[in-house]
Fold:
Amino acid sequence: MSKFIHQTLPHHHHHAIIIPCPFQGHINPAIHLSLRLASIGFKITFINTQFIHSQITKAHSSEPGPGPESNNIFSKARESGLDIHYITIYDGFPLDFDRNMNSLPFLEGLINGFVDHVDELVGKLIEKDDSINCLVADTFFVWPSIIAMKYNMVHVSFFTEPALVFALYYHLHLLQQKGHFGSHENRKDIVDYIPGVKSIKSSDLPSLFQNSVVHQLIYKAFQDVRKADIIIANTVQELEPETITSIQEKHSFYAIGPIVSANFTDLTIPSSLWSEIDCTQWLDAKPHGSVLYVSFGSVALVNKEDILELAHGLMLSEVNFVWVLRFNFLGQDEKSILPDGFEGKVKDRGLIVPWCNQMKVISHSAIGGFLSHCGWNSVVESIWCGVPLICSPLVTDQLANRKLVVYDWKVGINLRDGESITREEVRDKIKYLMNEEISSNLRKTIAQVKETFYSALATNGSSNVNFNKFVEELTMKISLVREH
Ligand code: UDP
Structure:
């Protein structure tokens, strides 16, 4: 029998288009949000780019279930009664264009050309089905308000990162005026004038501001978000109260996190862009809490020197580890950068994989720590699993996320203070974190923050209440739009 019978659910007259930015860390939460909305009766049309779709299809082609034939990553969800439609869109580049190695032209395309493809597709969708009344688009797009207005849809902006990062991007102009960004010699002192952010070190500000394409994207996207009807974010009210309250003074903003795969449904939707290596058997053979998981996410480029220092640090630390080393990410096989004989030397205690199912790995009882680039999903997933972090942020929001992890919530330690890392520092930080006695305070604190996460999603928890309020406001706004 169907698990969900959408016709009987309260919101079956709502039809939302959901469109994530074409990156792993944006697609995952958008999928979970889609499932959640569909479970209360929303009809969802989920749009992935053709490139992302072909990556997911290739990555999952050997798995049982929805392979390339089914052409729909949501087929299991549909079988269980959720009304989720899945379509793809051209992103302006050929399928074999290397978007990661050519990130700047790709981002430029997203800023300038992508809106035309969206316009054309949404126009066609609405021609066929005039029940579409809501657009849930990633905050990092520069065009959602234009499309929502043109097609008379309520515009929900989905921010997949914490409120702190939202506040910083939102006030980019202030950072520029005060000289912390955009000048030749940016100020290096504490930033204490961003509404809702008591203080932040200049070294914790999102990087890449100086890059003109990224700056343009963020600037335009955060002009556009000002016009959104509702903003929802993957964070938790209790964990960022002042920042959230401050944003709420200007916008309808709901903290509905943590959004992770495990918190809503046991459905697994294929979403990885690369084939997942199953680490379960290897982890099963390792003692409880003895394995460090190391990953730098799906986009960040780790330089050769850092990979070398990390490898040496891992060797010196003598702990067990699973290291996600995405192949061909530096335009060469990462394994060839590793120190001579590295794999042989660590063969009994180290597993190197090109990609894995991260949630499955870090929720394994053998995992005792996560050395992370602090991508927001990784942070959220690690806290969800109660795994303390070693933070080695590289770019963009990762630096501000590190502030939350290390200095505000105290659920992790910092690895990268300077520009580069050294093998001795890597060794020392790993030894500190993986020694359960020494890091016991950190473990107690993360257990509390994990509890805050779980409580937020309980029936009367803040995120659940916020989610319901969000849907209520959306319903009201949809009815207003319909009257026009
Ligand atoms: N991830 C995964 N397997 C891996 C590495 C990462 O499934 O081997 C997932 C991870 O669970 C997370 C996403 O990829 O949901 C990465 O998002 P995050 O925000 O942490 O970093 P980004 O890739 O955006 O820098």
The CA atoms of residues 203 and 418 lie 9 Å apart. The chain has a mean pLDDT of 91. The two ends are 39 Å apart (CA to CA).
